[in-house]
Amino acid sequence: MPRTDPTSPRDERVPVTVLTGFLGSGKTTLLNRILTEQHGLKIAVIENEFGEVGIDDALVLDAEEEIFEMNNGCICCTVRGDLIRILGALMRRREKFDHILIETTGLADPAPVAQTFFMDDEIAAQLRLDAIVTLVDAAHVLQHLDEVKPEGVENEAVEQIAFADRIVLNKTDLADERTIAEVEQRVRAINAPVQILRARHAAIDLHQVLDVGAFDLERVLGDDPSFLTETEHQHDTTVTSVGIEIDGELDESRLNAWLGNLLRTKGVDLFRSKGILALAGAPKQYVFQGVHMLLDGSFGRDWRDGEVRRNRLVFIGRNLDREALERGFADCLATAGAVA
Amino acid sequence: MSTAVQAPPAWDVAVDDAPVAISARGDLVAVAGAEGTVKVLDAALGAEIGALELPGGALRVELAPDARHLVATGPMGYALWRRTDGRTTVRESGAWSAAAAWAGPARMAVAVGRRALVLDADGGELWRTEPAASTVTDLAWLRQGRRLAVAAYGAVLGHERHTGQPVVTYPYVGSHLALAVAPTGKWICSGNQDASIHIWRTRDGSELTMSGYPEKVSRLAFDDTGFWLAADGAPDVTVWDFSGQGPAGTAPRSLRCHETVTALAWRPGAAGQLASGGADGTVALWHATAGRPQQLLRPARELEGNGSPVAALAWAGPHLLSVAWRDGRVRTYGVPSRTEL
Fold this sequence. Notes:
- By secondary structure, chain A is an alpha/beta fold.
- Chain A has two domains: 206 residues, P-loop containing nucleotide triphosphate hydrolases (Rossmann fold, 3-Layer(aba) Sandwich); 101 residues, Hypothetical Protein Yjia, Chain: A,domain 2, CATH 3.30.1220.10.
- Chain A has a seven-stranded parallel β-sheet with strand order 3-2-6-1-7-8-9, with helices on both faces.
- The longest helix of chain A is centred in the C-terminal third of the chain and has 15 residues.
- In chain B, strands 14-15-16-17-18-19 form a six-stranded antiparallel β-sheet, with no helix packed on it. A five-stranded mixed β-sheet of chain B has the order 20-21-22-23-27, with no helix packed on it.
- Chain B starts with 10 loop residues before the first strand and ends in a 7-residue tail after the last strand.
- The interface between A and B is medium-sized, with 23 and 27 residues.
C-alpha cells in the first residue's frame, strides 16, 4: 500500500471521482452538468454504461467491468482490470487531464474500483482516488433499500451508500419532505459520516463533489466532526456504521495486533474505515483510512498543547458488533492493562 | 565497465506523439504513439517510409518478419499497413486490441477484446478463438506458428486452427499482463498483476511461480537461445536461467541501473546481451548473463537520455538499437562490435 505523506507540499496526482448510483438516479444528468459547467478543467470520463454523454471537450471512454482477484490469499482484494488498462493508456497520452470521472453502473461493487487505486503502483503513482459519489433517487431509493435479496447476494443500493463519501440525494422535487427525511435517516443508519447533498435535477455545487479529498489522510474525518452521531437502529439493517470516540493514548503494538486481526477476520465485512488516533509517545496524530483489508495510514498534524488526546474512528460494514469493536479498541489503550 | 566514448546516434528523429511501442524487422523500424500515430522508418537512416493513424490511440506495433507488412493495435481497434503500395486498412472494432503477434511473414494473430483473430497479411480472417475470461492481454506463437498462446484473466490458453475452444489451458488465478514463450518451445511464462512470474513447462504443464516482486510484472522477454528470461517488476531487471531443468530453486541475476524499468530488449544472438530502458530516460546495455546467479550486475554502457522516460526499445538486427522516448524522440544507435556493447 502506498504511504502518503501529508507533510509533503502538494499532491500532483490527478484526482479521480467515482460516480455511482442506480439507473434513473441522475448520474448522466450530473455527468453532463460537470462536463458543461465553465470550470476550465480538462476532464476524461470512463463509462461502464453506454451513456448519452457526448461532450466535445471531454474524452469519453467506454469500459466493460472486469473484476480480477489478486491471488494473494485475500479474497476481498479485487481490482478492476478494465480500469487499470484504460487509465494506464490514458496516462501515456501527451494531453494531461485535470480530473478523471469513472461512472459505474448501479450494480457495480465500488470496492474493486477503490482498491485499484491502492493495489496498482503504476496507477497510485499518477492518480489519486478523490471520492466516491453516490447518487440516490429520493423518491425510489427506499424500495431499493428494502428489496430482499437471496442469501449471499448483496443489496447493491445499500453497498453503494455504504461506500460513499458523498451522497447526492437527487430528485427531491419528486418526493415529499417526510420521505426525504426518512431517506436521510436510512442513509445515516448505513453510513453515519457521509455528507448528504440534496439536489433537484442533479444541480449541486460541484466543489462539493469534485476535488474533495475524501481519501486524503489530511482530511480524514476533518470535514464532518459529527460522524459519531448515534443513529437509532429502528431498521433491521445489517450494514451499519460504528463510531468510537475514546480519550487516552494507545499502545501501538496492541493496536496493531487488534487492527490486524480485525482486518484479517472481518475485512470482507468492513467496507470503509477511517480514524484519527493518539499513539502513546507520538507527538503527531495518526490518521488512517481503509477499504476492506487495505489500510493506508500515516502521521498527520501535531497534537496541540493542551489538546485532549482523543481517538476517533468509524467503521462502516456488514454485521458489525458494536460492543466487540468498542471493547477491542478500549483494550488497546496504554492504560488498559494496568486497570485490568 | 566499458570506457568507450559515447557514440552519437546513427540517426535522430522526432514524432508528433508520445511513443508507446516500437518494432524493428528487416530494414524497417516502426514507432507507434499513444494518440495513434504510427511511423515506419528506414532502420539505417531514419527516413520515413510510411505512416498511418489508428483512431483512438495505439498500444502496440508489430512489423512482419519480412518487413513487408505491419499491424498496429489500440484501445479502439487495429490497423494494417502494406509496404508494396502503402495501403492502410483500419479496423475500428470498438474493442480493445492489446497485442498482435506474427506467426511468419503471411500470418498474424491480433487480440480483439476477449478474442484473438488470426489474419492473413492483408487482414483476411483465417480463424478466431472463442472469448477468453477477460480482455486478451498478450499473444505468442508456439510450434512454428501452429499453436497460439493467449493470455487473459485466470489462464493462458493454447489455441489451434481446427477449434475455437482452447486445445490446452494453463490455469493460474490472476491477471496475466505479459506473455513470453521460450524459442525452444519448452516454457511459457506470464508476468502478473500480483507481482509474480508464473511459469509452465509445456511438456507436462508443471508449474512454478516466482513471487516476491515489489511491483506487477508487465514486461518479460526470452533471448534467442531460450535459456534466459528478463523481467521487470522491480527497480532491478531480473534475469532467470532457463537452461537445463529451468529456474526452479535458483536465484536470478539482478541488473541495477533504473528506478523503474520501462523497456527490455535482448540483442539478437546468443551472447546474452540485453538493452533496458528506465523512467528516468536512461538506456543501459548489459552482459546480462555474466557472473553467477544472485549476482548484482552493473551496465556495460549507459546511453544518457534527457529525462523523458524511455517508452520502448528494439534491436534492428544485432548492430542497431532503436530507442523511443515519451517526449517523441526516436534515436537509433550503432553497436558495431559483436562482442562489445
